[in-house]
Design a protein that fits this description.
The structure holds 2 protein chains of 2 kinds.
Chain A: H1 2-52, H2 74-82, H3 85-116, H4 122-134, H5 137-150, H6 158-165, H7 169-179, H8 185-192, H9 197-208, H10 210-226, H11 229-234, H12 243-253, H13 258-292
Helix pairs in contact in A: 1-13, 2-13, 3-6, 3-7, 3-10, 3-12, 7-10, 10-13, 12-13
Chain B: H1 2-34, E1 37-38, E2 46-47, H2 51-59, H3 61-73, H4 76-91, H5 98-110, H6 113-123, H7 130-137, H8 152-177, H9 181-189, H10 194-205, H11 207-221, H12 226-231, H13 243-253, H14 257-285
Antiparallel strand pairs in B: 1-2
Helix pairs in contact in B: 3-13, 4-8, 5-8, 11-14, 13-14
The chains are: A mainly alpha, B mainly alpha.
Chain lengths: ~290, ~290
Amino acid sequence: MSNTASVNATANGGWRRKKQAGARVRKAAAYLFLTAGSLVMAIPFLWMLSTSLKEQGLEFEMPPKWIPETFEWSNYSFVLTEANLLQGFMNTMLVISLPCVVGLFTSALAANAFARMDFPGKNVLFTLLLATMMIPGVVTMIPTFILFKHVGWVDSWLPLIVPGMFGAAAGVFLLRQFFMTIPKELEEAAKVDGMNPFHIFVRIIVPLSKPALITQGMFGFLAGYNDFLGPLIYINSPEKFTLQLVLASFQGFYTSQWTYIMAGSVLALIPTVLLFFFAQKYFVEGITLTGMKG
Amino acid sequence: MKRKEYVWAYLFISAPILGFLLFAFIPLSYSVYVSFTEYSGYQPPVFNGTANYEKLATGDELFWKTLFNTFYAALGIPIGMAVALGIASALNQKIRGIRFFRTMFFLPTISSVIALTLLWKWIFNDSYGLLNHLLGMIGVQGPAWLSSERWAMPAMIIQGVWAGLGINMILYLAALQGVPRSFHESAEIDGAGRWQRFAKITIPCISPTTLYILITSIISALQDFPRFQIMTEGGPNYSTTTIVYYLFTNAFRYMSMGYASAMAWALGLLILLITLLNFWLSKRWVHYE
């Protein structure tokens, strides 16, 4: 009797050991896979950095040197000033600040109404707004261009600034998802005290929703900063070029001068990469919030 | 009291609704009209019936070629999804340094498309690029990539998969973390192996996420174009001209706004059809709790 029990126990223990060993192998394989994958992701960026620091012409050296003998920092000062990247950066900041701030505010107000207030036609209007997220940008691109051409806004920043200030459907959706999670009781007391809905929004909802607002604000910044198609369609004068347009124009101006092109690309990446490092959490939460609860 | 709240609510939603009318509804309606006209953007549009649509259907081989190219490029979607799921599964086993790995895969997602495209144009350079250098180290003579009619599109697919992994990986990771542990435990007791559990439990549990990724990826892949413009300018011999690139060229280079509008509507309807088909097919493979 005790004999069989101990046989069982050893068999069981062996099974567990085997299972643990299996788990260890699997984990090692996962690390290996992830490290290899990270290398595939990182190497292009390192190559970009390496090229950007080479002396003009040495980027064609074969086999390539990963670490140049001397770091040619002047590539960076050249693209910033002579090649107008700094000017492009300032233009981008001017163009995206208003849509970012005002657009976030208008999106949040609407999201607040859709999440926490009752009014006739709510569902129809919300569905309508969601439907705009489904309309391919391609279809509205041409008529919107015609519209702005008629009001004389082509080759100005206004087509890039004004539409964004009305708020974005995606923003309304993301913020609504978040606002729905705030308990209703919180504003009941404020209502009894006679606060109007705008005060309730500003004093109660906004302070509680900082993470969601930051997330949406960053998505707006990212979209505006990286936008290429909008400026490409509307802006013609080089002095009005946004950062992305300036960078894209490098190809034509500095054909095969890869040290300059890569230095410009490195600089263009810095703002968003910094932003991501400081606010990784918000990005991840924002993506999962919109992606999962659709 | 109630009515007063309605007024507030309508005020709150007024900006996005006005935005919808001005920048979606009115342009869309106008675009339907323009698609039945000849319109250069300078003279007023001239009605020409269904001529634009007839030209699309029968008279423009390049349109069909670019449509084919677009679907060819979309081959990157299943590849990218599979890789993203692989990475997410690896990350989902209580890995140390998860933040580091996640950042590595996510970096391209937040990076400027133009910068990444220029970078890859340099990597794909046939004589001095990194890729052919690395291939040379293992004794493979790399193709001419972007200047080869045969290899330009595969190169674009590789670049697209690399750049798009991050977001799908994060979505899949969140979905995997939501799979109830008890499902796996009871299946294990019933003797189901690791692969069996992956196929019979994990895959069905994360199928809503798969559908979401599939639909959003298809919608954006069918409209993909700036990276093609920078990397190949649609060549060689139109082998990487996507439909939106072609449409853009028609509208803003040749100034045939009417014809381009017809093309936009054809593409818009195609996207709608594919999305509906996706939803319809999803009834067979997507499981909601």
